[in-house]
Amino acid sequence: MSLSIAPWKYGKQWVYSITYDEALTDLYRFAVPMHEQFGFPGHVEVVVGQLGEVRRIGTSSYNGYRHMSGEELQDILHRGWGVGNHSWTHTIITHETLDLELRQAKDKLEQAIEASVILFCSPGDNTNMADHVLEACRKFGYLGAMSLTDALNRPEDELFWINRTALHDHYYAPFFSAFDPFRNILYAEKTRGWIIDYCHCPLETPIHPNKDCSADQLQQRFETILSEGGDSVWCAVPEEVLSYHLMRRHSRVETLKHSATQHHYRLNLDSLPHGVPYRSLTFEVQVPAAWCRDPKIWINNQALAATLVRPRTLRFTTDVEDGIEIVVGEDSYGQSE
Ligand SMILES: [Zn+2]
Fold it and tell me: In the CATH scheme, what architecture does the domain 12-243 have?
């Protein structure tokens, strides 16, 4: 008869997000409409020093394409997407450039999009996941950092090394490969994993086959995520997943009292970091069979409908704050108050 917090929101088994590095305007050609069609959000990683400008970074394959402007970034935010900092210059971050690449870039991006930025995304390769960079990320108020390591993320993992699955036409030599729309899905299902795909700007053909997929391949990937995932995949923007992750890890359920007709719990949020944008949690609770009839729970005396997941197990999702009281009881509980 205990109250527990589900590994992922809504009791979903695994999670899917996708990121588009460089935040190019050509995402409006295929990726943005495809997200509208499928009904889940994307996420862009912005080179803040070239906001709204045509890209000119070293020998980048994406030079000549235009980075989104503040207005365009606001437009995709309104479509449910998220925005991360991909540094100011997209070069190697040294001790001397930490302030520009991480603090000033965050400030400028936040002003441009009129929203907070809580994710850093390493530009180039994992060189920019060095200790001095991650330490500065924590200091400047980020809540997570995304790498280029192709692996799943799990509910218990560290958020300052978030892994991403390369959704590319094929990989660099000598690890040649073919595009696989099923990549990491089975593993995510079996181990409660969070897949974050990453690519750049899918068009008719990949701009660079080792850095991107085509629009057709992106569509295949989305169809596969939804057909394999069904109702057990949570498709969400990384900020929401990361918030859930933090809320769960900083929560402590305290049992106050159990009577024959009611169970009382308190939820404590211990040292939750500042700036977590989404503050809800999904709970599961074991109850006597009789309490499963028209199940309800009470949060600070407000009734909330619960879902019967299986015999004797109820599930509910609610906004939480430190110290809330959660009561589970039989269906006459509300009337007896
Ligand atoms: Zn990049």
Answer: Alpha-Beta Barrel (3.20)
